[in-house]
Amino acid sequence: MKTFVRPVAPAAVLVVLAACGGNPEPAPAPPAPVPAPVAATPTPRPSSNDAAEAARRAREAELARMRATMAQIVHFDYDRSEIRADSRAILDRKTRILRDEPTMRIRVEGHADDRGSTEYNLALGSLRAEAVKAYITAAGIPASRIEIVSHGEDRPLERSRTESAWSRNRRAEFVVTGGALTAGR
To answer: What's the pLDDT score for residue 82?
Structure first.
């Protein structure tokens, strides 16, 4: 018996070769991951507590600035009670604060250096405190909000007997006695 071999079409050979591991086509790449949608992060709105805290901090900063201004010393020339030109700017800043804080009350304390008699230096300290009060009241602050006292030579900033020490001791100091700056002392 004779075996009969039938001719195979060339296209069929290619199909068989491809199925059997000829040059396979590369497998398609997996699809790129799609990023998850990013939700917009809302900007946090300040809560009423945050706003109140910010307002409290701002007020504390303002009070600290006012305290520093009110603590500035005004100096005087030897044996004089006239307001010096360099002291006017200091007094103007103090006056603005007094205008903005209508419940604030102050005490102006006049001082002198230790040259001269005790009585003379007390009188000179009083004249210096009066001059400061007159300057502030001329700017519209009621005199009833300002008290004065003289310490004369009794409370020197410096005890040495030099011109530098004497010039520092010729002064007017300010004490806040009522209003916003006295709370929480």
So the answer is: 98
